[in-house]
Amino acid sequence: MTHIATTEHITLSSFLAGAAREERVPAGLIALIDAVADACSSIATAVERGAFDGASGNAHSENVHGEAQKKLDVVSNDIMIGAVGSVRCLRGLASEELDSVQVTGHEHSGGAAEYLLLFDPLDGSSNLEINGVVGSIFSVLATPASGAVVDERHFLQPGVKQVCAGYAIYGATTMFVLTTGHGVDGFTFDSESASFVLTHPQLQIPEDTREFAINMSNERYWEEPVRRYVRECVAGESGPRQTNFNMRWIASMVAEVHRILMRGGVFLYPRDNKHPQLAGRLRLTYEANPMSFIVEQAGGMSTTGQIPIMEVQPEHVHQRVPVILGSKLEVERLLRYHDEAAAA
Ligand code: AFP
């Protein structure tokens, strides 16, 4: 169970300053995290005001995945790029809404660590028209060779190399959830002080769960280990698991992962044969990797079904990947079902 700290008023800025003093976060990274958090609070406002500001509905354009963009996808992308553009340690960025990576014009800062930012500015945007939950997801990598001219190859690092990851969720409240590799902390936006305040320190995912999330309409496309797992969950008390399960599907990865952080669960967007040329639905570098980093830092597990997601070597920045993540015991069970199917 999550314990909510309401007694102390620790803002994201003071939390990061403390982490820098204790040398848990490099000082340069703090400016980048602050800028991303500022962007997220502006995106929350843009989402809230969409209907008044002419920003609701379709943009009549497509992103690199061939998906119709909402106006708020484009607005959120512009907000994020505008907010981080002046951060001196940032050398480049990649976004779901940009065809190719962008190199920032800053000169090499002379010895200090420098970073790349990868993000999905508005995840789950098909939920906008139903006033459902949406969010932003981000991942930070270090530039491998300080001073080198940055290009797409520098972004192609496996998730284990992430130095920081997080998401913002725009739901009943706006929250910013962050890891720098020292656990996971959740901050709630306080509109009175216009700051993110630490409300959910050191989140832990229960290792056991009776809740799963998958788009059941894809059942006919799944591989056998996933079919077996879901069949057994659905069979409930009368099946081999001898217990009843509950199912949730919000169609927003941010909302699913947030629920898992709050009360456990397992989330699957597995490999399927709906579009066999694509390895899965979700994107590796700016969706699956940051969420895997968060889930593992909170004691959960994340896998493609074969290997840990964060060990996948990206071949391009918009690559897709099968995703199974959440409570440890269920993810281990799914891995076992995949191993058994491979051995059969
Ligand atoms: P959008 O950002 O295009 O709405 O996609 C959201 C998402 O990538 C992810 O957040 C959800 O888990 C998944 O798609 C939902 O997919 P379905 O359309 O199969 O429900």
From TrEMBL:
GO terms for cellular component: cytosol. Residues 205-338 form the Fructose-1-6-bisphosphatase class 1 C-terminal domain. The keyword Hydrolase applies. It comes from the Bacteria. PANTHER family: FRUCTOSE-1,6-BISPHOSPHATASE-RELATED, SEDOHEPTULOSE-1,7-BISPHOSPHATASE, CHLOROPLASTIC. Homotetramer. This is Fructose-1,6-bisphosphatase class 1. It comes from Paraburkholderia phenazinium. The gene is fbp.
